[in-house]
Amino acid sequence: MKLWFEEWFESDEYLEVYQHRNKDEAEIFILQILTKINLAYGANVLDLGCGAGRHSLLFAKRGFQVIGVDQSAKLLAVAKNEAKQNNLQATFINDDIRTVLFPEKFKLILNVFTSFGYFDNDEDNFALFSNVAKLLSDDGVFVFDFLNAEQVKGNIVPFSKEVIGDFTVEQSRKIENNRVIKEIAIIKNGEVKTFYESVSLYSKAAIMSALNKNNLSAEIVWGSYTGEPFDEKSSSRLILLCKKKK
Prior knowledge:
This protein is an alpha/beta fold and about 250 residues long. Helices cover about 30% and strands about 35% of the residues. Helix 3 (about 25-35) packs across helix 4.
């Protein structure tokens, strides 16, 4: 049986539902990152869970050597096509971000837009951090962008409905077994397609502990893509800029 993300990310509707997560948002986030780290022109960047390449391609546009990794062949095809159309040099690989290996180390590694917490157990989820520790250069930076679990718990919207193009999206949300679970119904021409999202609600403390166990330390903590300070009750995101511990 396919896992939820293997069905949802391969669907025709996924990118349309999340079209509000656009290049402008990614551009703001990338500028925030680059103001805080010393990344030389042409440095190598690894985007783990790159999806359709929203962040990867913006780094490539700036002259960095980019590799994006994702398990969704459909989203990778979108990324490759956009790179080709815009004459951007970026490599996209279909692989598991928890186990993929490369001969080189990377100056910047990204795991953004909640590309984490999909699995049912801690070992599978935190295997990402173990792999990042292997792939990150000694002076490199790991940017981890996740939802803020406490804010989600306190502000969950049980139901929402919106019209996107020629279809209607109904989303039902609940928290169960410390996971936020979303049912997404796509209604078009009288037909209904149903997809799911299910993400573990790891606290900031749990994330920091797992990073520490993998020799990684959060140097900067943000609560939004614009670099606002993190507040556990109100921040929409948990964004950590991490380095290897000396």
